[in-house]
Design brief:
- Helices cover 13% and strands 32% of the residues.
- The chain contains three helices and twelve strands, in the order E-E-E-E-E-E-E-E-E-H-E-E-H-H-E.
- The N terminus is likely disordered.
C-alpha cells in the first residue's frame, strides 16, 4: 500500500566487499542475499570503513538509476545507487559510489532503513567467518571491545587486528567478532 511504513528488521546491515565487487545484505549473522556491484576506480576508490545510511531517494534519475541510499562518508557525497549503465556492474569504475543493477537496488531499498550500518572492506566476510580453531562472539546491544576483551581474556588490540576493525568504537548488534 502506498505510504505504508515498512518495519526494518533489527540486525540488518550491509557489507560491501570492494575486491570482489559484491554487496552482502545481512540479517544478524546470516547473509540474506548477495548482489554484484561496481565500486570506485583506482583514482577515486570507494572509502573503506564503517558507515551508515543517512538518506534515501526514490527515482533520483540519470546516472543514479532508480534508487539512492546516501552514506555518511566524510569528504564527499557517496551512496549505494542504481545506474543507467548496467554494463558497469562488476567493475572498478565509479567515482567512489557503489552501483547496483536497478532491479537489485529496488529489491534491497525497502529492506534498508535510515541508520542501517554499512561496512566497506576488501576482506570478504570480515568479522563473519570463524577461523580454524578460533572462537567468535556475536555482538549484543551494549557490548564494547573492552567488555569482549575481558570476557575472553584477549587484548583489545588483538581483537581489532583479527577483525580488521577500521573503527573499534563502532560495533553492530549481530556482528560476529573473531576472538584470536
Amino acid at each position: 500500500m502506498p505510504g505504508e511504513q515498512r518495519r526494518i528488521e533489527a540486525g540488518t546491515r550491509l557489507e560491501i566487499i570492494r575486491a570482489d565487487r559484491r554487496l552482502n545484505h545481512y540479517l544478524g549473522a546470516q547473509i540474506v542475499k548477495t548482489y554484484p556491484v561496481a565500486v570506485g576506480k583506482a583514482s577515486t576508490p570507494t572509502p573503506l570503513g564503517l558507515y551508515k545510511v543517512v538518506n534515501k531517494v526514490v527515482n533520483p534519475g540519470g546516472v543514479l538509476g532508480t534508487r539512492w541510499m546516501g552514506l555518511n562518508i566524510p569528504g564527499g557525497n557517496y551512496g549505494i545507487h542504481g545506474t543507467n549503465n548496467a554494463s558497469s556492474i562488476g567493475k572498478f569504475i565509479s567515482n567512489g559510489c557503489i552501483r547496483m543493477y536497478n532491479e537489485d537496488v529496488e529489491e534491497l531499498f525497502p529492506k534498508v532503513g535510515i541508520g542501517t550500518p554499512v561496512i566497506i572492506t576488501d576482506r570478504p566476510g570480515t568479522g563473519l567467518q570463524k577461523p580454524e580453531g578460533g572462537r567468535q562472539h556475536v555482538v549484543e546491544p551494549g557490548d564494547t571491545l573492552w567488555k569482549i576483551s575481558l570476557i575472553y581474556g584477549v587484548p583489545v588490540d588483538a581483537i581489532v587486528k583479527a577483525n580488521n576493525l577500521a573503527n573499534p568504537d563502532f560495533l553492530i548488534p549481530g556482528q560476529v567478532i573473531i576472538i584470536p
